[in-house]
Specification:
The protein has no helices and six strands. With 65 residues, the protein is mainly β. The strands form two sheets. The protein has a three-stranded antiparallel beta sheet with strand order 2-1-6, with no helix packed on it. Strands 3-4-5 form a three-stranded antiparallel beta sheet, with no helix packed on it.
Length: 65
């Protein structure tokens, strides 16, 4: 018996490299985060949750693989 091929849905969420506006350090952030994300060095706000996609306050550098 042969199995039918089923397509898997692609996720809309991803990981991003975000650069802090104040100090310039880079951090990996999930786009649908559920927690407040702060910079590890200067403690400034990078991302805030919004129920769906998070509001990104830093500069998006690239997508993480």
């Amino acid at each position: 018996m042969s199995k039918e091929r089923t397509l898997l849905p692609k996720s809309n969420s991803q990981f991003l490299y975000i650069q802090c506006i104040n100090c310039g350090s880079e951090q990996v952030v999930y786009t649908h985060t559920t927690a407040i994300i702060t910079c590890k060095t200067c403690k400034s706000l990078i991302a805030t949750p919004r129920g769906g996609k998070a509001i990104i306050k830093g500069v998006k550098i690239k997508k993480s693989r």
